[in-house]
Amino acid sequence: MLYGKITGWGKCLPPAILTNQAISDVVDTNDEWITSRTGISERRVSHVSTAELATAAAKNALACAGIDGSDIDLVLLATCSPSTMVANTASLVQKNIGAVGAAACDVNAACSGFLYALQNATAQIQAGMIKKAVVIGAERMTWYVNWARRDSAVLFGDGAGAVVIEACDEPCGLMATKTGCDSTDRDILHITNFGTDINKYDAPVGPSDLLFEGREIFKRAVKGMSDACDDVLQKADLALTDIDVLIPHQANLRIIQAIAQRLDVSDDKIMVNINKYGNTSAATVPIALCEAVEQGLIQPDSNIMSAAFGAGLTWAASYIKWGERITPINQPTAKLPQNTKTALELLDGAIKACQSA
């Protein structure tokens, strides 16, 4: 049987930091209000496109794996904030990393997107269709934020993470997974004025309205991710005590804490970085995965559980068996173009447009 071993990992975080204090200059809020409700202290604002974030993360993952883009058979980009819809953004990433002839596809399952894409790529390896894939989660979520609304202005950030997976005979990589979608309540988290449902000929399309019902999302996220983790543990014939690391979607610290309590996972086994980056949607899991390796939380042969919940309402849980290597073959060198602006300077036009709408 073939498996999809994770051989490379990489991330890309834009340098401009948007602190809670800076946001309080834009909307009526303060650091205490934000941190007590979300666990977020700061987030990143990108000066480049989603494709450029994804490209840098993918190049760093390739360097870590010690392979070239030309070795890749498949590029899967999980994003709900693509640079372009037509052509797909993955095709530009494929071009940028030199993955000549590789299949390229965008995957939109919102915050669950990376785990959906990892499942897809692993299944293709197991079926013998491909040998090497790069799976990326990249988002420019600040592009959607309505800076006149406090509830969404404090939550989201930009960034990207990626992994390289390669076919092997060793039982490792994505070993068990459960994905699904509760579409009956999809309207509790959505953007109302985006897409071809909008009649752009009768009225101008204003700032994005990213709407969500916080309490309902909290309940469904905790239950959905916890139930999915239970299902995956049963499939993999594992107990909770067998799990070495929990990497949850970084949407809200309260949600992470509730899942950890429900699964009875100790704090020292949980990867949390929401305080630094906010909610980067499909990018949260791969960024957290990279940092879990960097911080020594992931060790050779670690049993990793990851879970996510997003708009749709999509959900996913995955059991990943790590391999023996926890150090890059080559150090990451991909960087973004230089940025001289602060986060608020980058957002100045968007903030004025939202406040005047």
UniProtKB/TrEMBL annotation:
Top-level taxon of origin: Bacteria
Ranges for region ACP-binding: 250-254
Pfam family, one: ACP_syn_III
UniProt domain comment: The last Arg residue of the ACP-binding site is essential for the weak association between ACP/AcpP and FabH.
Lineage, top ranks: Bacteria, Pseudomonadati, Pseudomonadota, Gammaproteobacteria, Alteromonadales
Xref: CDD domains: KAS_III (cd00830)
Catalytic activity, reaction form: malonyl-[ACP] + acetyl-CoA + H(+) = 3-oxobutanoyl-[ACP] + CO2 + CoA
One GO term describing the cellular component: cytoplasm
Domain Beta-ketoacyl-[acyl-carrier-protein] synthase III N-terminal, residue spans: 106-182
GO BP, sorted A to Z: fatty acid biosynthetic process
Record's protein name: Beta-ketoacyl-[acyl-carrier-protein] synthase III
Keywords linked to the UniProt accession: Acyltransferase, Cytoplasm, Fatty acid biosynthesis, Fatty acid metabolism, Lipid biosynthesis, Lipid metabolism, Multifunctional enzyme, Transferase
Pathway this chain belongs to: Lipid metabolism; fatty acid biosynthesis
Species whose genome carries this gene: Pseudoalteromonas tunicata D2
Keyword presence, Acyltransferase: yes
Domain Beta-ketoacyl-[acyl-carrier-protein] synthase III C-terminal: 233-322
EC number assigned by the record: 2.3.1.180
Main location: cytoplasm
GO molecular function per UniProt: 3-oxoacyl-[acyl-carrier-protein] synthase activity; beta-ketoacyl-acyl-carrier-protein synthase III activity
Enzyme class label: transferase
